[in-house]
Design a protein that fits this description.
33% helix
């Protein structure tokens, strides 16, 4: 199973993370950074969860494994921010 993680910055240091399965929002939470949001979604223990499509605003880094979300969230966050800036963030 693959979820979708949408991360949006509310104000500096406050991010909203929404986790969806298809069009159904499963849960949302606040995080202090993009990497905390990624790690938070990656720590979800739903049976059969393999990874997530990760979005920050209008950019996506594609489908990412739970292992990468749990253990390399900072690198993933840097990629998202880089793409966001490159494409009109």
């Amino acid at each position: 199973m693959i979820y979708t993680l949408h991360i949006d910055m509310q104000v500096s240091g406050v991010y909203t993370a929404r986790v969806l399965h298809g069009n159904v929002e499963l849960f949302d939470f606040e995080a202090s950074s993009i990497s905390v949001a990624i790690r938070g979604c990656g720590s979800h223990t739903a049976s059969g969860l393999e990874g997530a499509h990760i979005w920050y605003g209008h950019v996506c880094i594609g489908t990412t494994s739970l292992h990468a979300m749990r253990h390399d969230a900072e690198t993933l966050a840097q990629r998202l921010v880089g793409l966001h800036l490159q494409f009109g963030g």
